[in-house]
Fold this protein.
Amino acid sequence: MQARLAADIAAAEDLDALEALRVTTLGKAGSITALLKSLGAMTPDERQAQGPQIHALRETITAALAERKAALDAAALDIKLAAEAIDMTLPADAAPKGSVHPVSQVMDELAEIFADMGFAVATGPEIEDDWHNFTALNIPETHPARAMHDTFYFPDKDAEGHAMLLRTHTSPVQIRTMMEKAPPIRIIAPGRVYRSDSDATHTPMFHQVEGLVIDRGIHMGHLKWTLETFLKAYFERDDIVLRLRPSYFPFTEPSAEVDVGYKQEKGRRIVGGHGDDDGHAWMELLGSGMVNRRVIANCGLDPDEWQGFAFGVGVDRLAMLKYGMDDLRAFFDGDLRWLAHYGFGALSVPTLSGGISA
Ligand code: 2NL
């Protein structure tokens, strides 16, 4: 019986046939199960005589079933592997690469351009106190920019009793730099700024770059040359024309609004050319001026020894102008399709030697 069963098991053609053999031998009503049950009805002598043989039979058949099952499983796997053969020479699926947001790209471009003129990048806190954000900048207590409906204030004051707020410009970074470092100073301060403002062209958070130079004998000629050199490098054109228009900021004296000439082409503003030329106009782009003596003194420097110029410009607007985006709100929607369209390769870093637009 044992030899016959073992041969049947070894010859089972598939897992179903093997399972049928298991049921007829070791199953509830199986032949070997019946033998095991019969042990209970035997006398001790009979049991001692037959018990070992019956248990040995069960073990042999159990092992034979397992062995055949392993062989059938292995054969099934071989068939499956042969059917699913992988062609290792096929190209791999493209991994999503991600891309650099235009605001980050433009900030990198600005850092590169200004580094070439000897400027370092300075950063500072986005949560500020009203002394660094307003008072040090000669912005009076009554100035509308300080109003609750223009600036995001925190409910509590800081340890010195100053009101806390989300910085409304990156000027406090320059204030902190002037207080901590000895001149000469040449820095740009890029970063997020916050104003309580929201419509098609204003978002409550936006990006700004301010620049500051403090040294001896600095005058408006330095200001104009720096801005002209910056804008020519940024827009990658030699025909950028600047127009400085008298203006007013509490932190600069004199102050100048800086316009650039442009022309309209296929619904897009193309920067370049003289704003009074045919088909051209002027567009306001930057605010600037000579740092107010009071601001220099507020930072602990002698305004008779140290002078400087400063400017501020919106990064989001610089990006829109250069790369032809028309809706500011799309910048902060987080729509990956917009990023896929306008984003920049993470490895194409802007350099003056390799191309500023990467
Ligand atoms: C604008 C105006 C400007 C400054 C920012 C500045 C900073 C210090 C001292 C003096 Cl610490 N000035 N910054 C100066 C003039 C204009 O920005 O229209 N920005 C978009």
The longest helix spans residues 44-83. The chain has a mean pLDDT of 93. The first strand starts at residue 120 and ends at 121.
